[in-house]
Amino acid sequence: MAPADPALGGPVLARLEVRNLATIRELALDFGEGLSVFTGETGAGKSIIVDALGLLLGSRANTDLIRTGENDLLVTGFWNEAELEGRAGDESSASRRLAVQGRGVARLDGEVVSVRELQEWAQTRLTIHWQHSAVGLLGPANQRALLDRGLPEQTAAYTHAYREWQEARARLERLRTGERERARQLDLLTFQSREIAEVAPLPGEEEPLQADLNRLANLETIAQSAAGALTLISDGEENALGFLGEAVRALNASARYDEVSAALQQELRVALDSLQAVSGELRAVAEDGAADPEELARVEGRLGALGKLRTKYGPTLADVLEFQAGVEGELAALTRDEQDAGTLDADVDALFAELGRVGAKLDTARRGRATPLAAELLAVIRELGMPHARLEFRLSALPEPALYGPSDVTIQFTANPGEDLAPLSDVASGGELSRVMLAISTVLGADTPAVVFDEVDAGIGGGAALAVAEQLHRLARSRQVMVVTHLAQIAARADHHFKVEKAVEEGRTVSRVRPLSPDERLEEIARMLGGNTSEAALGHARELMAGQDVKPSNRLVKPSNRLKV
Hints:
Blueprint: E1 12-21, E2 24-30, E3 35-39, H1 48-56, E4 72-80, E5 91-99, E6 105-108, E7 111-113, H2 115-122, E8 126-129, H3 140-148, H4 152-177, H5 179-199, H6 206-217, H7 219-235, H8 240-250, H9 252-255, H10 259-287, H11 293-313, H12 317-383, E9 390-402, E10 405-414, E11 422-423, H13 424-427, H14 430-444, E12 450-454, H15 462-475, E13 480-484, H16 488-491, E14 496-505, E15 508-515, H17 518-530, H18 535-546
Parallel strand pairs: 3-13, 3-14, 8-12, 12-13
Antiparallel strand pairs: 1-2, 1-4, 4-5, 5-6, 6-7, 9-10, 10-11, 14-15
Helix pairs in contact: 4-12, 5-12, 6-11, 7-10, 8-10, 11-12, 12-14, 14-15, 17-18
């Protein structure tokens, strides 16, 4: 198998800070590239680190995780976003706080976000394979996704063809089963459209119509008022026009000698002309004292028709017009459905034929990818302590095409010689599943820059343990890999070794996690091999560590510009 790309592919986890999580009171860990391992005595709480990272991935909040006697817990992770692009200094953070009372709080770069937003953000940077999470591989959708990972064009083409066929088929089904309902809808919509169209309302026309109605209904009062004003202006024995005329004449003598008097006399003449004009208009109003019954009926009828439309389709005329537009759109769609019903059968058949063609191409591509992918996976699986294992991807035609393809995809597997292949979900043990998952991560690559394995080595030892260690080491060439392990073989391949320890302080259990020095690391691997640090165990540990292909790297991913959350 070709070696992995030595360059990591994205942001790396630089630091983890934990407070009041289970038996951890306060913890700060700096992480490095490559393979990091966490070891410790049974019951030391090695998986607490995985629990902390799980909270950043949006795992379900459980207040039982809060340290006894404390009000809350806080987990914060810091990522160096540009560490691997030569632009050190770009850093992001994610945190999650759980409280005994009240809701928890999630943050990204100090800003409050929802847990779902935190989860979506973290899932692009970190993957956790929990101790029993390999069971997710048992789902047919996940097995199919492994095969389809290298076939994006074929799967996208099939999905598009399937949706087009489904939409056309659903539309035809609606036409066939809803003829009576469609006819009822057509009648109703046609009536509503015609009712509004016959009135043809205009936005804003009600106000001037209401003003006309008020005028027509009060013409007698208007005429009487005009007649009274006319008496005062011109028709009375003493009236304004008479007085104004006398005033003009009174200024005749002075206007000859005084410019001011002449100017004033001219203004009075203008006023006299204006008053005479007003008098004429008032006379017309006074003589028009009887309302035109037809005009009154027309205005009342128009307002009534508009009011009826507003009551049914309003509350305003603008709403009525908007309703009319919607009705016209529905009518057009229903009419189009009726017109299309005759040709839709042929369209559905044509789309189904196209789906069959695209589906056949997808199945051909899947079969073409299945054999070499199975061979690659099997080569790794056999190295992981299952030398007689067999594996293949099997395609089984479905009675009807599904959204994901015309066939089911299942992984067929057996770990034992002489046994027939059977679905992975039926025959694989927990340990076998974990090793298959490790093989998949190694061959296909993890989906995120950082990958965490929680006791992926459960139930194995001997040569299989060395093989698992080698696969983790290979994966760590292209990913930041963290492993909770009890196997010395894996610990010996680590670039960074952390030990989880428990102690009792002031009557309380406290867990600590600390990086080991080279001498401490040798003693820990010896303990893991034989349960003690005897000369024989230390010698065995030296031999195991000396068998590495590369020396451990002590370079940590130093976080920059720490963000306080």
